[in-house]
Amino acid sequence: MSDSTATLAPSMASSLLESAAAVAALGDSVADISMLDDASVVAGMGVVRDHERTLQAYKIALAAEIARRSDHALGFEGLARRRGSATPAVFIQSITGASIEDATKLARLGQSMVDDRGSSDGVKPGQVSPIVDAVVSGGISVDAADAIRRGLGG
User: Fold this and answer.
1) pLDDT at 3 (0 to 100)
2) What's the pTM value of the predicted model, to 2 decimals?
3) Are 100 and 93 in contact (CB under 8 A)?
C-alpha cells in the first residue's frame, strides 16, 4: 500500500466492508426493499450515504495515486501518458466514465493530496489538508472542495 492511502485512513477497508454489508442487508432486490417499513427505508438511505462516503475516500486516494504516478515531470513514462491519456483527468475520465468536468475536479483534488505531502503550509508530511480530510470523511463533496481550493487560489 502506498503512503498516500496508508495515512489517509487506516480503517478504509474495514469501513468499506461494514458499509457494504449494511447496504446488502437492505435486501437483494427492489422487491425486498419495497417490503421495508418506513423507518428502514429512511435508515437505508443513510446506510447508502455512508457507503458512498467510504467509496469516495477510495476514489480520492486512487486519484491522488494516479496524479502522483502521472506527474508531468515523468513525461511519457507517467501512468496517464503510458495509457494514452494526455492528463490525469482524461485518464480518470476514461476509467470512470465521469464527465471531464467531474474527472478534472477529482484529478485536482488528488493532485492537491500529492502536493500536501510536500508542502510547507502547516500540513505535516504524510497528512492531508483540512479540505481533503473533509472530503474523505464525507463532510463536503468533491465539488465543494474544488470550489474552496479554487477560491483560495490553490
Assistant:
1) 47
2) 0.76
3) yes
